[in-house]
Specification:
The protein is of the alpha+beta class and 327 residues long. The chain folds into 3 domains: 100 residues, Winged helix-like DNA-binding domain superfamily/Winged helix DNA-binding domain (Arc Repressor Mutant, subunit A), CATH 1.10.10; 135 residues, Endonuclease, Chain A, CATH 3.30.870; 55 residues, Arc Repressor Mutant, subunit A. 49% of the residues lie in helices and 16% in strands. The longest helix has 17 residues. InterPro entries: Sig_transdc_resp-reg_C-effctor (IPR016032), TrmB-like (IPR051797), Tscrpt_reg_LuxR_C (IPR000792), WH-like_DNA-bd_sf (IPR036388), WH_DNA-bd_sf (IPR036390).
Length: 327
């Protein structure tokens, strides 16, 4: 068996795919044209190979037209471990790829554990975020604040992850409720029956995958940018921040009827109305979000105050929380 045969057995890639993957390992990132020239493969074929490498987890999109290799120990390590007794020789190929990777130029920018990775462009962010979500085993936690640049989760992937037992929690900045385009994200999350809460203000936009990785969207002018890290200190810090703000945020209704207490007749639509009211929205903003008239909102708030036997909206908020009118 030749050296290339060993590499193909370890990676599961065909000859041209492994050649391009090895080229990627020697660079911080590279364009399609650059890789096509160096590999001797036509640009169209190179683009197809790169798309397959991204789908297979061997590469990521660093920008809309640039690609970056995933470290061999990440993409191959778990596979090789599962087949260790049957295919011990694959570790030789892994070590060879690791040496190429360690000798590559450029500080950081790779998908190594503990390092920072920067992704530029909406298409690249969508691709990378999809890969991160797909790797989730237990939870996905998200800070959502306008303007929304990070793409809305893919519906099919979202349902598959839910079926696998992944828990989704979204903490929305209250300002999202003041923007109709951004409110689409909220409506979709409610349809998926994710856990949702509202915070008065969020300090940043981020996504936390399990306790293993964090993506933070950079607030910079121009093309959207995001940074990703698996550094445990950073992941633990962002997770702690999420949990701290989550405990003090206002819950949105989870669509689970029967949360009423003391025999009070709170209609299903009132749960969301009360959540928005407690979150601090104006009557006009609530009417816009619910698609009803301003007078309808004011009338229903008055009826809820009468039902709760209170005189002020602040008292209504306390009563709603105490008696289970909001989760």
């Amino acid at each position: 068996m030749t050296d290339n045969d060993e590499g193909e057995a370890a990676t599961g890639l065909d000859e041209i795919s492994e050649r391009i993957y090895r080229l990627l390992l020697t660079k911080a990132d590279a364009s399609v044209s650059q890789l096509a020239t160096e590999s001797g493969s036509p640009p169209a074929r190179t683009r197809t190979v790169l798309a397959d490498l991204v789908e297979g987890g061997f590469a990521t999109m660093a920008a809309d037209s640039r690609f970056r290799a995933v470290a061999p120990d990440i993409v191959l390590g778990s596979r090789i471990t599962l087949q260790l007794n049957a295919v011990r020789g694959r570790y030789e190929a892994l070590r060879e790829l690791m040496e190429i990777h360690r000798a590559s130029p450029g500080p950081g920018g790779r998908d190594d554990r503990g390092r920072w990775e920067q992704v530029i462009g909406a298409v690249a962010i969508r691709s990378r975020l999809g890969q991160l979500r797909e790797s989730a085993e237990h939870s996905v936690r998200t800070f959502v604040r306008p303007p929304l640049v990070l793409p809305m989760p893919d519906g099919d992937q979202h349902r598959e992850l839910q079926d696998r037992g992944v828990r989704f929690r979204h903490l929305f900045d209250r300002a999202v409720l003041d923007s109709d385009p951004d409110a689409t994200y909220l409506r979709r999350a409610l349809e998926w029956r994710d856990e949702i809460r509202f915070a008065k203000r969020l300090p940043l936009k981020l996504v936390i995958i399990d306790s293993s990785a964090t993506m933070i969207e950079e607030t910079a002018p121009g093309r959207p940018r995001a940074i990703i890290t698996a550094n445990q200190s950073i992941v633990e810090l962002t997770a702690a921040l999420f949990e701290q703000l989550w405990t003090t945020a206002v819950p949105a209704p989870n669509g689970d009827p029967g949360a009423e207490a003391d025999g009070d007749s709170v209609e299903p639509g009132d749960h969301l109305l009360l959540s928005l009211l407690i979150a601090g929205l104006t009557d006009q903003a609530i009417a816009s979000k619910l698609g009803i008239g301003l007078r309808t909102v004011q009338r229903r708030v008055r009826e809820l105050m009468d039902l709760a036997d209170v005189d002020t909206r602040i008292q209504l908020g306390w009563h709603a929380a105490k008696h289970g009118w909001v989760p």
